[in-house]
Amino acid sequence: MKRVTMAARNHGDAVVEAEKSRLKPPPMFKVILLNDDFTPMEFVIAVLQTFFSMGRERATQIMIQVHNEGRGVCGIYPNDIATSKVDQVATFARQHQHPLQCVMEKT
C-alpha cells in the first residue's frame, strides 16, 4: 500500500501530516471458453447469453471465435466474480452432459 502525503501543518512543536492511502484496483481476470468437438454451438450461445448477459448477436460472434480460434474471451472480471462464472459454466455444462470448458487467466 502506498501512502501519499497530502499536507503538513505545524501545531506548536509537533508537525502533523495528513496522509491518504491509495488502494490499487483488484487484479482482473479474463474468463475464456475453450473449443471442443462435441458441445453444440447453440449451447455455447445459450451459455454466453445466460452467464455473461450477451445479446444473441454478440454471443454468436464469441461462439464463432471459440470455434475458429479455439478460445474466446467472455468478459473480464475481478477474481471472485471470474471464479464464480467459471464454476457456473462448468456446472451448467456438466448438468447438460457437455464437455465445454471455461477457464480464467490474469490480465
Describe it for me?
The protein is of the alpha+beta class and 107 residues long. It is built from three helices and five strands. The protein has helices at 41-52, 56-69, 79-95; strands at 2-11, 14-22, 28-34, 71-78, 101-106. Strands 4-3-5 form a three-stranded antiparallel sheet. The chain has a two-stranded antiparallel ribbon with strand order 1-2. Strand 1 (2-11) and strand 2 (14-22) form a beta hairpin.
List keywords for this structure.
alpha+beta, two-stranded antiparallel ribbon, 107 residues, 40% helix, 37% strand, elongated, three-stranded antiparallel β-sheet, disordered N terminus
Shape: elongated
Tally the helices. 3
Structural class: alpha+beta
Helical residues, percent: 40-55%
Strands, total number: 5
- C-alpha Rg (nearest Å): 22 Å
User: H/E element string?
Assistant: EEEHHEHE
Average pLDDT confidence is: 89
The profile of the biggest β sheet is:
3 strands, antiparallel
The span between the termini is 21 Å
DSSP strand (E) fraction? 35-45%
Low-confidence regions: 1-6
Going across the major beta sheet, what is the strand order?
A: 4-3-5
